[in-house]
Amino acid sequence: MKLAELTWPEVDALDRSTVVVIATGSIEQHGAHLPLATDSLLVTSVMEAVEARLSEKILLTPTVWLGASGHHLAFAGSLSASFEGYEDSLIQIVENFHAHGFHKFYIVNGHGGNTEPNGIVCRKLKSRHPEIVIGHSGYFAFLTQATYDAILTGSIKGIRHACEAETSLMMHLHPHLVRLEKRRDDGLEVDPPVPGMVFFFDECTEAGSFGDATHASANKGKVLFDEAVEGLTQALSSLSHGISLQGR
Ligand SMILES: [Zn+2]
After folding, report:
1. What CATH number is attached to the domain comprising 54?
2. How far is the CA of 202 from the centre of ligand 1 (A)?
3. Residues spanned by the domain of 165
4. In angstroms, what is the span from residue 130 Cα to ligand 1's centroid?
5. Does the residue 87 lie in any domain?
6. How far is the CA of 110 from the centre of ligand 1 (A)?
7. Is the pTM of this model over 0.70?
8. What is the pLDDT of residues 26-51, one digit of tens each?
9. Is residue 247 part of a domain?
10. Is residue 38 part of a domain?
11. How many structural domains compose the chain?
């Protein structure tokens, strides 16, 4: 079910063990070839496909489009909440549902910069409301290395930012929004030599993208999309039925 399409009595009539799924995206630069809404569009497309398969089991909120994107603000049109504002907006969404008795939540993310805030949000909410079931993951966490290795032909075998993989997803899902002729190879193919470095995109990219999007294709995007939808469908179905956290 999609929250935005229901009436309040319809929501009020729902089984309170329905899994409330909150999708998080961004409005931020994605190089010269992808639109600012790329992360929001991709996570929305993935979650709408999952919702179509699990419509009786999950309640999908509209995608939260204002993300934690401070590391992109040097590029025009990029927008960011403060970390506190972003986290508070998610906490409010969960607590608004919780006030009506809902107690299962999952945050599905489309933007890497939201990953750590989403984790903090879950930990804050769990400590305030120990009885709730809550978790978070990027849709990209359901993409496997085997798939990356099998289909990606550029040197980055994974998903980064406006890269071969992300551009392929956009070519599959929103081809009219991809500026094919603007794709480029930034030559940024290795991670910094010290793990865990925090950087802004204008410090390390010229156009704002990573990898070589000229290798991207709609067919590769379909493979990645299908894998993410399948993985999330299984995960949310498990959450709906109830998972055991013991005995592992
Ligand atoms: Zn992105």
Report:
1. 3.40.50.10310
2. 15
3. 3-241
4. 33
5. yes
6. 7
7. yes
8. 999 999 999 999 999 999 999 999 99
9. no
10. yes
11. 1
